[in-house]
Amino acid sequence: MTHWKHLKRRHAAYAASVLTVALVALLVGGIAGRRRAPAPGTPAVTATGAIARYQQTLHDTPGDYRTWADLGAAYVQQARITVDPTYYPKADGALRRSLALDDTENYPAMVGMAALANARHDFAGAVRWGERAKKISPSNPDVFGTLGDAYTQLGDYPAATAAIGRMTALQPGVSSFTRASYELEQHGDVAGARRVLEQALQAAYTPADVAFCRYYLGELALHAGDLGQAAEQYGLARTADPTYVPALEGIAKTEALRGDSGSAVRDFQTVVGRIPQPQYVVEYAELLTSLKRGNEAARQRQVIDGEQRLFAANGVTDDLTASEYAADTGDAAGALAHARAEWARRRSVVVADALAWALHLNGKDTEALTYARQATRLGWRNAVFYQHKAAIEDAVGDTGAARADRATAQRANPHLDPAIPAIGRAT
Amino acid sequence: MQKDQGRLRGRRPIILAAATAVAATAGLLGSFGPGTGSASSHREAPLIAGDPQADNTDVYAFTSPDDASTVSLVANWIPFEEPNGGPNFYPFATNTHYNIKIDNDGDGRADIIYRWTFRNEDRRGTSTFLYNNGPVTSLKDATLLFRQHYTLQEVTKHGTKTLVKDAIAAPSDVGKASMPDYGALRRQAVSAVGGGGRTYAGQADDSFFLDLRAFDLLYGANLKETGNDTLKGYNVNTIALQVPKKALALKGDATRNPVVGIWSTTDRKGADVKLGGVQAGGYHQVSRLGNPLVNELVSPAGLKDTFNRLDPSQDHTVKPLVNRVLNPEVPQLIQKIYGVPAPATPRKDLSEIFLSGISKNSGGPIQADLNSQLLNKDVRASRFVPAEELRLNMAVPVTAQPNRLGVLAGDLQGYPNGRRLSDDVVDIGLQALEGAAQTGKLVPALAKGDGVDANESAFGSAFPYLALPHDTSVNQAG
Fold first, then answer.
1. CA-nearest residue of chain B to A200?
2. Which of B12, B44, B117, B237 has the highest number of chain A CBs within 10 A, making it the mutation to test binding with A?
3. Distance (Å, rounded) from C-alpha B241 to C-alpha A375?
4. Is the ipTM here above 0.90?
5. C-alpha distances in angstroms, B70 versus A333, A377, B155, B262, B398?
6. Residue A130: which of A156, B267, A169 has the closest Cα?
7. A 70-109: CB under 8 A from B
8. What pTM did the predictor assign?
């Protein structure tokens, strides 16, 4: 593979002439495979730094479509790292500029568009971009990564399996193994999901990769009710990379579920202070509510409302989170409206569960049951799905089925806390 | 140990600076690896975690200058190792096959695979990140807390033979205080190979030298000052093997069959699970390298990932790849910008250099018998296929005063006849693309090449020949 794909990223900042580097990039950076992660040993490289370098390059050579594609991808990455959706329109602009300059061989920009579409929950759009990129570069692992993500979220599981299988064959490693693990988890193979995550961990090279794998080992344990194992994995994630915020979120969740609310609140406060990820804020708000700390919960709810507006304003269409949150906070009508809107766009098991639950909260249990069955159709040992289904079955009078599903939920996760549903939700 | 602490202390201000820069948004010092989360409740695995451990950067093959009965093969992995890259430094990957492959009958398939596999001996526990907790003067010192062991196997049609069992790889160079004499560690890490020969695995200076800005030439920028080695100061992980020539030759006869094709690959172990009813296990080739610069300068954009996963025996079936060798882009660019006329296509000369080896009976225009397997007396021409390999005629004697331009300058021991560490493959490659191999004349407009004519550190005179790793950071400011 050679050095070339790494050169541009690593050296743009140090080369004597930015212009020269830009021109080299035309030939070398662009034609080489896409590698966006820095080599290990690089001191805390931030997307900010990469963005500044690309901008400088483009200032001198505005016709360099490959760097426009890189810039777009860096914006998507930056949005994910900072949970600041205002980067999405910027990413969109850079990627479209890149495509305007070349739309024949420019698969990096198409993969960038697919990743952006996924980030904005436009999964159908991600499939269109990914399939276009696939025609140009049929062995690029990232193409299949974006396609796998998109098909999973759309609920087209056979297509997702095929894409992830292909990615795993093309590039065994952290990116494909963590996707394969999720794939197996959703299909009910918990042991396989854990095994392949452990394999991902062995393949992990950078501290951030190690932390990512540890975190998801923690998640698997948490959603199986093994709080001790979960806490250990989250702790190891934090040890591997102290800057990796989800590790602390995981630790906070185990504290909350163990009833150590003082530590949980303190840690959640730190987490949402560092990354205002909507999911984390929701978890924190629900924890505060369960502790009868209404004023503090209300403040977090304001944060959530503000974020939802901000995400929507930057092209993120997410009725799923809105539905789940509305359901958790007693807004049955809102939960249903949002769930129906999401279902109109995509039919994943997670959305099916949200819709089933929202229908139940509105007393539409017969209809709810069909969606609850859809939610459990893959065999995912997701305790929340089975608990919802059991409640719906009770409501329609099928107590036998309800008992069985409640037992399944209990086996899947004996530590589900109904007072803080967001913390138990496996997504 | 003191040095390590100093280094970690020294790094802190950088991290703080980074933190300040991002604090305005969310204060995440985030590494640029896997995503830390997504906008909302759906899960995305990291898309863009690279795989430098699988990334083979260069392959060299040459008659050993100090022992003409043997050939030395050198392959490098993990580009841009910044010296002092702790705390984990730069291990070889486990669950991975590092291969050097030999095709001695010209059918594009490996007749001999040399395969290195590594395992970790990690005694750091959870209490320390440190690679070592005191000076390391021997590979077996207890102070070296992380050590890699490897096995070297030879795979042929007769089966798999273990040539080296559980040898110790040289560690990453942690610095002068921790490893006062890395040369001594390297010498200890050279292991005898069963059946004759020796091998080394460990860190080394990156032997490739070039100035990337040379490619300005291609895009018509002002002719700026070139001559800076872009890779100066960086290390790589290297695997080197020295074996008797007869070990590589077809039928074990290096006199009748002196030509061999060489390339390296990395195979990563797949997921040990079923995905959609299909076993995802086994090993998958993710990287491949024979001739330098081929995938960069010749492969079409959309085929680069494919190329890395192809076996050379398949190359001739991939039409766009073959077409691009016959109709390369670079000479067109040079013509457009500099008015140096591009040689007429199809470029059968490039096909000889990259795909078949140079010989009069290969059907190409270069009137020389240099390094095609078709020159081997026991090769069946009917089974020969064009395949991208680095080809070495082991019968060519060692040049006393090697010329960096190799064959183009009349030094037949140099690239593209195998590749010596000191061969200037960027300059050779540009000249070859401009047709110098078939005209026998260098193109004056490109005579300066990239202005980098030699590696920043002298190569050694004894196996494994590479310069010792650097132990001073390249980018002091991070």
1. B271
2. B44
3. 56
4. no
5. 80, 63, 20, 15, 11
6. A156
7. 73, 77, 79-85, 105, 107
8. 0.88
